[in-house]
Amino acid sequence: MANLQLDILVIPTYNTLTLGVADASTYTSTPPIVSSPTIEITPPGFDVAVIPFTVDDFNIFTSSNLGITPAGINQPLPDGVYYLKYSITPAYENFVEKSIMRVDKLQEKFDGAFMKLDLMECDQALKTQSSVTLNSIYFFIQGSIAAANNCAVTDAYKLYNQADNMLNSFLKNNCGCSGNNYQINFY
User: Fold this and answer.
1) Which of 9, 66, 74, 174 is most buried, judging by how many CB atoms fall within 10 Å of its CB?
2) 3-state secondary structure 8-54
3) Topology (CATH level 3) of domain 8-102
4) pLDDT per position in the chain (187 positions), as tens?
5) What is the pTM of this model?
6) What is the dihedral of CA 125, 131, 135, 137, to 10 degrees?
């Protein structure tokens, strides 16, 4: 018989309104017989929310059930580092903790900029410059996620803010169609 080993996976929902957490635990029985499964989720800038957790399933959380907004009112979840702790009774012995960097709002903005790139009427050098800029922004987003996954929260926020600032500048400047960086560095 397998030993109890709790584990959770944060699964992308590709939706700014939801956070998906799957139970990836190994239980001692099938179906699992556990006592008081709960998950504690601390969104950035908010208090911890203690929520019942459905074992052996995919759980969806919103701003409403995380205590960010009143019941029944769902808004986009904030980007930033989320702390999660899944536990069963007794909680002091049986738990797993994770931190993740949520970037869904930034990713949505990035996707919009990327779609503008494909629709722009620029010459090839300008499109290539925009592509180089977007690749750099994407690199910072991925770096932010990697830093949070490795408990480097300060670095995660620095990289996130750099990506956000670059993306805002890119969008403000008509997607950065200058071509200068490409012509200087790649032509």
Assistant:
1) 66
2) EEEECCCCCCCEEEEECCECCCCCCCCCCCEEEEECCCCCCEEEECC
3) Immunoglobulin-like (2.60.40)
4) 468 899 999 999 999 999 999 999 999 888 888 888 999 999 999 999 999 999 999 999 999 999 999 999 999 999 999 999 999 987 668 899 999 999 999 999 998 888 876 545 555 666 677 888 889 999 999 999 999 988 899 999 999 999 999 999 988 886 545 444 444 444 4
5) 0.81
6) 100
